[in-house]
Amino acid sequence: MADLITYRDAVAEGIAREMRRDASVVCLGEDIAEAGGVFKTTTGLLKEFGPERVWDTPISEQAIAGAAMGAAMTGMRPVAEIMFSDFLACCWDYLANEIPKVRYMTGGQVTVPLVVRTANGGGLGFGAQHSQATENWALTVPGLKIAAPATPADVIGMLAAAIRSDDPVVFFEHKALLATKGPPPPPGHVVELGRAAVVREGGDITLVALASTVPLALKAADILAGEGIEAEVVDLRCLVPLDAATVLASLRKTSRLVTVEENPYQGGWGATVVSIVADEGFGLLDAPVRRVAGECVPLPFADALEQQVVPTVDKVVTEVRGLAAY
Amino acid sequence: MDAGALLDRYERMAVIRRTEKAAHDLFLQGLVKGTTHLAAGQEAIAVGASAALRPDDYVFATYRGHHHALARGATPEECLAELMSRATGLCGAKGGSMHLTKAATGMLGSYAIVGAHLPMAVGAAWSARLRGTEQLAVAFFGDGATNIGAFHESLNLAAVWRLPVLFVCENNLYMEYTPIADVTAVPRPAADRAPAHGIPGEVVDGNDVVAVEEAVGRLARRARAGDGPAVLEAETYRHFGHSRADPAAYRPAEEVERWLKHDPLDLARGRLAELGVGAETVAEADERARAVVERAVAAAKAAPPPDPREALTDVWADGGAAWRT
């Protein structure tokens, strides 16, 4: 087997590739330089690019997001890290009011080419304030692009697209995927934002997944295949731009749909996908749509409790069996 | 400052004063929607600071930012057209009074979430450092902004990175409707906090355009030389209320009278007289300012509204607003 790369190392590799090709790419965040990031996702960047391009910040999320914005408005391409996605709330003004609006309210005068990276999701036992899947927060704000890769190759390819984007991108790296491995992509690998991937083909039901729920959906599909149900798994990769066309195309084959998301059911991205299907794909459906999502509770600490409230393989399998028999 | 330079500053202030008066009148005529936060009385800070800056320096302002936009190169016509929702407005009528921006001249925006732009100025100064341009970034803000977290995060980050950024507080004594002293534990809300972040904090008469220009010039030279950020607290007073709905009845009459007698335009006129500039020369400057603003009002009134299709442009860098494929 060729050398594999972890999702964790792919983050640093993806950033490094862009820093090598573009001197305007700079990094800032808490513990990202000497320490290499609390999740070791920026290991090696300080050594290769030096302290003029890799900056440790104080614990000041507003200053991190605001400074990244100011730098992006004036010629740089900052990659800012907000350590845990829960902490996006500490700088929410920048994500909700400043970064996504400035281009519009200035009549197109200002462009904000920045990436806000953040560690998202549960599964590591960090408790309620370090475990949420918050990509649905960003989904409520017009003007933010949202990327959430599921594989090391996509981490690198989507980071390339995000950093090169002239629009602001919130880049969700899933904590539960950090140790997973995959083949490293070739040099120059770019995954265009807004292109979903059909990661498993099947004719009976469409599972739409994102980030951590992609391997989960694939495991469920394997189990279901043993029962004669062939699930097609769509990895959305991005919530904005949203590749609804790929979802609808899959639905044309399968006539059945389940979304699998880690954020809470209440306001989750699955609701947006399902509403598009209801609007534009109702005639394609042979069964009701279903959403497997997080429960509307804060994330509990104990594994036994967390498994009750996040999507699991069993929950997906159960939901699909029900729909297949509909 | 010589007489010619001071007369230039005076005329710039006169244009701003007349533009603010026009904005007020146009609002009363129903031609300006929403709200306005007029800066009449605070002109010396924008004009003095701008005169001390390089043309390529960056400026970030607040919802009370008409004077900064005008001082940094926006014309009265494009500002008033923006307020009047015309296609020729500074931001194509997508911004309005609180969001006057002219990026081409370094006026990188006025932001209406109190204090939010301070970290942006830090980032612009960081960017200037990274690009080696010796540009400065200036954040103008009100006294009320000194009590939000971003103020302190910004001062600390600018200080620890020794960035070329100036924090200029326009202390007009009121946090919206409330005296700043009632909600702040120190007498100088900006300057007194600066030393806690390792930054010099100075106080200047914000109605004296000469004093402001001198102070900003000195702190700008210091920052460009690599000595880091500074806080300048400019004491001033707004002639109108906080916003258009506010008659400012909460202000003591004696206080209002005292400050109206300390008007930036009067102060500059006094200095001009001391420098031997005749009253007729000053009157000519006033007349030029009057004519500029009168023409601006007429042009803005005559301009068309924006094309409604513009509502769905400019979300993304490609010019569009598409969020799905």
From TrEMBL, chain A:
Its cofactor is thiamine diphosphate. The keyword Plastid does not apply. It comes from the Bacteria. Pfam families: Transket_pyr, Transketolase_C. SUPFAM superfamilies: Thiamin diphosphate-binding fold (THDP-binding) (SSF52518), TK C-terminal domain-like (SSF52922). InterPro entries: THDP-binding, Transketo_C/PFOR_II, Transketolase-like_Pyr-bd, Transketolase_C. Keywords: Oxidoreductase, Thiamine pyrophosphate. Residues 5-180 form the Transketolase-like pyrimidine-binding domain. Coiled coil: none annotated. GO terms for molecular function: magnesium ion binding; oxidoreductase activity. The keyword Oxidoreductase applies. SMART domains: Transket_pyr. This is TPP-dependent acetoin dehydrogenase complex, E1 protein subunit beta. It comes from Streptomyces tuirus.
From TrEMBL, chain B:
The keyword Cytoplasm does not apply. Residues 11-308 form the Dehydrogenase E1 component domain. The keyword Oxidoreductase applies. GO terms for biological process: pyruvate decarboxylation to acetyl-CoA. Gene3D superfamilies: 3.40.50.970. It comes from the Bacteria. Pfam families: E1_dh. One of its GO terms (molecular function) is magnesium ion binding. InterPro entries: DH_E1, PDH_E1_Alpha_Subunit, THDP-binding. Its cofactor is thiamine diphosphate. Keywords: Oxidoreductase, Pyruvate, Thiamine pyrophosphate. This is Pyruvate dehydrogenase E1 component subunit alpha. It comes from Streptomyces tuirus. The gene is acoA.
